[in-house]
Request: fold
Amino acid sequence: MRVLVAVVAAVMAAGSATFAVAQHQHSHDASAPPVRDDRQFVKFPPALVEHTLANMRDHLQALQEIQLHLGMGHTDVAARIAETRLGMSSLGLHSAAEVSKYMPQGMQDAGTGMHRAASRFAIVAQEAGVTGDLKPVFSGLAEISAQCVGCHAGYRLK
Reply:
């Protein structure tokens, strides 16, 4: 169990570091000129902006819950959360067909990549409950996060 907790902590730290690097590629010197945000603006209708931001917050909450359950050894619960809240079967909950109409292709690809990665994660998490092999689980979790980080590094909503 201690090994599992250590692995979860290491994965979370690595993910946090990746996100921090992606979002803060600048100096914190107060005298330095402000850094431009070169992410592509994506214009959504106002109602869909709020809806999409709420979905993204739920995605973050789902990732946190997955990590919590992995830390407790509940791979089956982590798998269920991943599939129902992030995986391909969650697309209807997020009105993906409506929202994707406003996304540039790269943003669509990142979203689809995240949903597919979550479904693949759900499978390896279920398998880990039988095999005890957690390496694919943490690789799969990193793959989900990488899609999120990549999208947020390239796009922002208007």
Remarks:
- The CA atoms of residues 32 and 126 lie 49 Å apart.
- Residues 3-22 have pLDDT under 50 and may be disordered.
